[in-house]
Each structure stands twice: as structure tokens, then as C-alpha cells.
Specification:
Blueprint (H helix, E strand, L loop, with lengths): L5 H6 L4 E4 L11 E5 L2 E4 L1 H20 L4 E4 L3 H14 L3 E2 L11 H17 L3 H4 L3 H18 L11 E5 L5 H9 L4 E5 L10 E4 L5 H51 L1
Helix pairs in contact: 2-8, 3-8, 4-6
Length: about 260
């Protein structure tokens, strides 16, 4: 992919932090300066961190595991939903249910329930229900879908989390920590970067900034997926060539036997 440059981040406003009085001192290594009472993020550090995060996430997806996107703030929801769907990755953009990771067995029961409701709605039994009962079933399905729709295809815990705004998604981070699931995240000047494994210092409030970082991270995942596909294709080709070679080696022996 075309690498992001300093000017790209600058144009997207990735460098705008919070007011100085709202800062977290642990973000000091990533802050370039203070201007008009606002902290300015060091974009050179952002580029380095994004590069490290991109290389690490490629290795995760090459193993065939899933990355869960988490962003429940208004300006990030649609962006994250679109990118996660494009990559066929799970996502949470409505509400983080407590225990979504640490109590995954219970979440899976809810997913099965949602799936069974969907099946039932296609059958005649649903059509034969009273209007009020059909309405109750539909409402329950909609409720489950709004919260769990993004993780409907998740059969096991994700291998990593990507988060926009770590202060807002602190419960998700806490659960990931308990399970040793690495967390990649956009971290603004009001947050503690030590809370996550791969902090990407960036403005996590502006749409343009979120869009740029989410898209860049998504492209890294896409590259990892393509590398995995190529490895599998190469392995399959090698198997076919080996099998053909064995057949070819046997043919002269068969001719002599005849």
C-alpha cells in the first residue's frame, strides 16, 4: 500500500490533541508542543507507531485469526462498521456488553439464539403466530442484532482488538488484558498509552483523523490477508506438483512391468 506521509496526517488533523489541562502526563513522549493551550501530537511518532502496529497486525491475520474493531462513539461508528465489513472482521459499534470477551460462552448462547430466531422467521410457524407474538419476536431479533450483529460470525475469541478512543472503551481493554489479547488503539493526549499494547498517538475525535488511521490499519490487515492467501495457494501448488512428480516417477516402472 502507499505509505502515509507526514503531510497526509497533518491535512487530516491527526496532530490535534486536547486542552493542556485535560492531558495525561503519560502521553508526554508523543506530544510535540503546546499551542494556544492545546497539545499537539508529534506526527513523526504517529508514523512510527502506525508502522509498528501495521507490521504486528499483519502477523496476527496471517495466522488466520480475527481482529475485533471496537468504536462506539458517534463519529467513528460508520467508518469502523464499513471497514470491518469490508475485511470480514467482527466489530462492536453500538454498546460493549460486559463479558463480551471474558464471558464469551454466554455471548455465544445469545448468538445462537439470534440465529435460531432468524431461522424461525423463515418458517411457516412464524407466519402462523399472532400479530402481537410476531412483533415481540421481531423486536427481540432487532435488539440482539443491534448489539451482536457485528460479531454474528465469531466462533472463538478474537486474536486482537483495534480500538478508537481507549477512555471510552475501557471495559473492552480491561477484558482483553485479562485474556492476554493484544490491543491496538488510537490514543489521544487525554489517555494513558500504557493501557494498550500498540498505541497509535492520534486525534480520536475528528472524523478525518479517525478515517485516516482506521483506513491505514485496515489496509495493513488486508495485506496480511493477501499474504496468507498467497501462502496457502503456494502450498497447494507445491502439493499438486509433488503429487504429479510422484506419478511421473512411477510411470517408467509401470511400463517395464508391462
Amino acid at each position: 500500500m502507499a505509505k502515509l506521509e507526514y503531510k497526509d496526517l497533518l491535512d487530516a488533523g491527526v496532530h490535534f490533541g486536547h486542552l493542556k489541562r485535560k492531558w495525561d502526563p503519560r502521553m508526554a513522549p508523543y506530544i510535540f508542543m503546546e499551542k494556544n493551550g492545546i497539545h499537539v501530537i508529534d506526527l513523526n511518532k504517529t508514523l512510527v507507531c502506525l508502522d509498528e502496529a501495521s507490521n504486528a497486525i499483519k502477523q496476527v491475520v496471517r495466522s488466520g485469526r480475527k481482529v475485533m474493531f471496537v468504536a462506539t462513539k458517534k463519529q467513528a461508528k460508520d467508518l469502523v462498521t464499513e471497514e470491518a465489513k469490508r475485511l470480514k472482521m467482527p466489530f462492536v459499534t453500538e454498546r460493549w456488553l460486559g463479558g463480551m470477551l471474558t464471558n464469551f460462552a454466554t455471548i455465544r448462547k445469545s448468538l445462537k439464539k439470534m440465529s435460531s430466531i432468524e431461522r424461525m422467521m423463515k418458517e411457516d410457524t412464524y407466519k402462523n403466530l399472532a400479530k402481537r407474538e410476531r412483533l415481540m419476536v421481531t423486536r427481540e431479533k432487532e435488539k440482539l442484532e443491534s448489539i451482536l450483529g457485528g460479531i454474528a460470525d465469531l466462533t472463538r475469541l478474537p486474536a486482537a482488538l483495534f480500538i478508537v478512543d481507549i477512555k471510552r472503551e475501557h471495559i473492552a481493554i480491561k477484558e482483553a488484558k485479562k485474556l492476554n489479547i493484544p490491543v491496538f488503539a488510537m490514543v489521544d493526549t487525554n489517555s494513558d498509552p500504557n493501557q494498550v499494547d500498540f498505541p497509535i498517538p492520534a486525534n480520536d475525535d475528528a472524523w478525518k483523523s479517525i478515517n485516516m488511521i482506521v483506513t491505514a490499519f485496515g489496509k495493513a490487515i488486508e495485506e496480511g490477508l493477501n499474504e496468507r492467501k498467497k501462502e496457502k495457494d503456494d502450498a497447494k501448488l507445491n502439493e499438486e506438483e509433488t503429487a504429479k512428480r510422484k506419478v511421473d516417477e512411477k510411470e517408467p516402472i509401470d511400463e517395464e512391468a508391462n
